[in-house]
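Collaboration report, partner site 2.

Our partner group contributed sequences for two proteins of shared interest, and the home lab folded both. The records are reproduced in the order in which they were received, starting with the first partner submission.
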Amino acid sequence: MNICLLSRKMDTYISKADPSILLCLGVTAAFGIITFYRAKKNQVQKKYIFGQGFLLLLLLGIFCFATLKSYVSLTLLPVACLIYYVYLPVQIMLPVDKKAVLITGSDSGIGHELVKYLDNLGFVVFAGVLNKNGPGAEKLKRSCSQRLCVLQMDITSSEQIKEAYLQISEMVQNTGLWGVVNNAGVLGFPGDGELLPMSMYKQCMEVNFFGPVEVTKMFLPLLRKSKGRLINISSMAGCIPLARFAAYGSSKAALSMFSGVMRQELAQWGVKVAAVHPTGFRTSITGTPELWAQKKNHLLENLTPELKKDYGEDYIEALKNVLLNMSVNCASDLSPVLDDILHALLATSPRGSYTPGKHAYLSVCIFCYFPLWLYDFFTAKFQRSKNVPSALKVFEAKSKNI
């Protein structure tokens, strides 16, 4: 009975409704059908983004229908649907077809897993490693197909980069080199920028920026010939400022900017460039407790007596907890990173920037669209630590006694 009554009321309302409202609903329904068809025909890259976006459109439709004037709804809702349709994250992927890809820093971490991932999909992978006879390289040789080629490639060595180029050029004469993934990188020791020795800044720039630039310059002729892909693995620390990562973040920010410039310049050659900014993933870049102790001692040896007094050895000793927390709290599943790199390699319209990782967009949005004081407050809460420099402890104690 109630259902019949509700149906009659709806029929009465629709019969009296402004024709423009009915037109608005018709246009919205048409966009919805087209969007679902596109999502079904092409694999949606991130289903949760698709679901959230469609839910927002539904809520917007209800809001427009219930509160706004008909001509406003007629304009606003179809435009929103059109924008959503254009930016719907779909994957129209090129075939693998034994495409050749060079990956640097393949000894461990993201690079190591990416080599195995792409090899399993049928790519011809050239794995650049720091130590060709090391455990990482040997593991790749055992676990991958015969297509894999492991190359000795320290990206801080111009000679090794050139030698790798000559080997790859000889091997891809007929098929060409489709992609270069600049993955090799170092983290250094996380600490206040004032404490870090210049050698650490230089090492981060050498490995995280100058190395990828030299690799890119060396292999660009092959990429231009194939109209392929250049992918630089940056970091969220290269997008937004994060305390304790002055050296690492600065070098990754330089790499991100280089990626953007290359994207613009190489578009005329048909080469597509992408920067990947992972956040919150557990890899071997954090190092081992033994390496932490070594870097901490190196840091202490390079401090002036004044700095050592102001900060205190206890404060510096506790900095290793940053690495410990990274190892414990970060995600061990690298599939979001690998999937984004695959998309950048094979999608007909890859994005210029990827941010795989939990809550990655939240930090970027707060930094880009809100006052800086709010971002600083947000990151301070997120990175909260009870560790305080010695001089500040003394100052706080004196303030309490006054």
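Second partner submission, folded after the first:
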Amino acid sequence: EKMEPLRIAITGAAGQIAYSLIPYVANGYVFGPEQPVILHLLDIPPAMNALKGVVLEIEDLAFPLVAGVVPTDDPEVAFKDIDAAVFLGSFPRKKGMERKDLLEKNV
């Protein structure tokens, strides 16, 4: 009996941490080796081109548990009917910023 896919939202989806995490979700290491998933990938508008690249890689790797991918910059779309969310992403560190500056922006 085939399981219904879980809808999983991942924020900061075009970033490096998400890039490392997505294969674990897509391979069944997070929700189980038989559990299909639909990935709702959220990022900010300037990151949409990078997010398209992430989606292409997911498609190219043909993960058998990935039942769909929803790339978006709209939180309403990203969080609609989801079963779980992974919140990643933050204001990036820029030249001349100290760690305390970064914390002020992100906390």
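Feedback sent to the partner group on the second submission included the following. Helices lie at 16-26, 48-61, 75-78, 99-106. The CA atoms of residues 11 and 87 lie 5 Å apart.
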